[in-house]
Amino acid sequence: MTFAYTHMPLDRCSNQRKNTSWLKAQYHKESTLFCVINDGLCFFKQGEITPLFLSKAELTPLQIEQCIFLGKSDEHAIFAVDHNKLRFSTQEMLLTQGQWLALRQNSSLLNPYDAGILALAKGLVYWHKSHQFCGQCGNLHRSVEAGHARKCTHCRNMTFPRTDPAVIMLVEKMFADGIPRCLLGRQASWPEGVYSTLAGFVDPGETLEAAVIREVLEESAIVAENPTYITSQPWPFPASIMLGFVAQATSEKIDTRQDSLEHAQWFSRAQIAEFVVNKAAIIREGELNTQSTDEPTSPKGNNAPLKMSSSDSISSYLIQAWLNKKIGKY
Ligand SMILES: [Zn+2]
Q1: How confident is the model at residue 303 (pLDDT cuts 50, 70, 90)?
Q2: Topology match between the domains 14-130 and 164-323
Q3: What is the C-alpha to C-alpha distance for residues 294 and 286, in angstroms, rounded to an integer?
Q4: Distance, CA 20 to ligand 1 centroid (Å)?
């Protein structure tokens, strides 16, 4: 099984980013394409879920300093551009050519390689936008190294793209009745019935394993042990990577009163097999959750069917892998 944003068809050419003549040559090639990001939204063909990459001529006048080199394939070099840096007339022209849509909302319909490119573009454009000024002296930063670093115009402090690590874990336990169950939780803001694996950001000075144990304890009062790394997923919504783990619980009684979960529960494989696959995805930025918030929420107290985490998320992957006995001890 694979999941979204993990496929990258481009060679990032990271050892060439400081080579300005190489970069200029890539920028000026006829075949080079530009991926425009507009306040987190991606550009798609009108009426289709097909990304629209543009030529330099279509975005003229464009400066190389405005562009972030993403990488190159055999056919094209691709740069990302922040829509806010384009001329108003160019912005107007784009409106006639395509549509602005959220990546997560449409990722299940996208070619996985396009989803990987758009996720990279979105993450880097967001980083530039949120790091305009020097964290040391407050003066303006400017983009350097093909858009993969920023340097202060005053104190020359360098800063690099941020990726905040977050752990996401499938916690399992063998119960006295001989049935293994896994721990899933939900936040009050999610659509009725949606459950996900627990997740949280890694603290400074903390190992990933310690973060797994701490987050599970904080969110559910469950004591977990033996965190084992499974896989990771880029999560540039806006700037994370999800590090997937499986762990075993040594306690059973759940208490969610100390943290953000509305409810958490143990689920058997038989119960999870009945979950509805949740293809919708959130478009809200800055949240760690992997759920949909763009569906109408069912009224409280009804019998809304239980739903899996959004299908583009590593949470959904971990739950499916546990269901199929591909991960975990039990
Ligand atoms: Zn500075």
Answers
A1: low
A2: yes
A3: 15
A4: 23
The pLDDT score that the predictor gives to residue 49 is 93
User: In CATH, what is the architecture of 14-130?
Assistant: Alpha-Beta Complex (3.90)
CATH topology for 164-323?
Nucleoside Triphosphate Pyrophosphohydrolase (3.90.79)
Structure tokens at 98: 């395509």
Contact between 107 and 5 (Cβ < 8 Å): yes
State the average pLDDT over residues 185-204.
94
Q: How far is the CA of 127 from the centre of ligand 1 (A)?
A: 17
CA distances from 4 to 93, 97, 294 (A): 31, 26, 19
Counting residues of the chain whose pLDDT is more than 90, the rounded percentage is 82
Residues with Cβ within 8 Å of 176's Cβ and at least 6 positions away in sequence, in order, are: none
The one-letter amino acid code at 49 reads I
Q: Within 10 A of 178 (CB to CB), how many other CB atoms are there?
A: 7
Q: Where are the domains of the chain?
A: 14-130, 164-323
Distance (angstroms) between ligand 1 centre and the Cα of 298 equals: 50
The dihedral through the CA atoms of 135, 139, 120, 39 has a sign that is positive
pLDDT at 297: 36
Q: Which of 284, 304, 312 is nearest to 193 (CA)?
A: 304
Closest CA to 233 of 321, 160, 150: 321
